[in-house]
């Protein structure tokens, strides 16, 4: 699913950047430019990064935000 339409970044791309060390929206943006054009994808990127943080209990909420952003 495309998360950043300005840079054609998918949720899997975000997860890939996270697995390579990106921990914040800014760090993902530094790697690929996502979130640096219109900024509309920043909440969705942040929520995907939250999925990767065990124990936050926010995985369900993050999926809702990502789906809402894609409509
Ligand atoms: S949708 Fe990601 S910067 Fe515009």
Helix content: 40-55%
Estimate the mean pLDDT confidence. Answer: 82
Number of domains: 1
Strand order of the largest sheet: 1-2
CATH topology: Arc Repressor Mutant, subunit A
Largest sheet: 2 strands, antiparallel
Element-level helix/strand string = EEHHHH
State the secondary-structure class: mainly alpha
CATH homologous superfamily title = BFD-like [2Fe-2S]-binding domain
Question: Any overview of this molecule?
Answer:
The chain is mainly α and 71 residues long. Helix content is 55%, strand content 7%. A two-stranded antiparallel ribbon has the order 1-2. Helix 3 packs antiparallel against helix 4. The termini are close together. The site of FE2/S2 (inorganic) cluster (FES) has 12 residues, from loops.
Give the topology:
Elements lengths: L1 E3 L4 E2 H9 L5 H8 L9 H10 L7 H12 L1
Antiparallel strand pairs: 1-2
Helix pairs in contact: 3-4
The chain binds FE2/S2 (inorganic) cluster.
Question: How would you summarize this macromolecular structure in one to three sentences?
Answer:
Helix content is 55%, strand content 7%.
List keywords for this structure.
single chain, globular, 71 residues, 2 strands, two-stranded antiparallel ribbon, mainly alpha
């Amino acid at each position: 699913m495309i998360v950043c339409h300005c840079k054609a970044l998918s949720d899997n791309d975000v997860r890939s950047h996270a697995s390579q060390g990106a921990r914040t929206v800014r760090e993902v943006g530094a790697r690929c430019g996502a979130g640096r054009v219109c900024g509309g994808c920043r909440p969705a990127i942040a929520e995907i990064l939250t999925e990767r943080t065990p124990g936050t209990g926010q995985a369900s909420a993050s999926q809702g935000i990502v789906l809402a952003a894609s409509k």
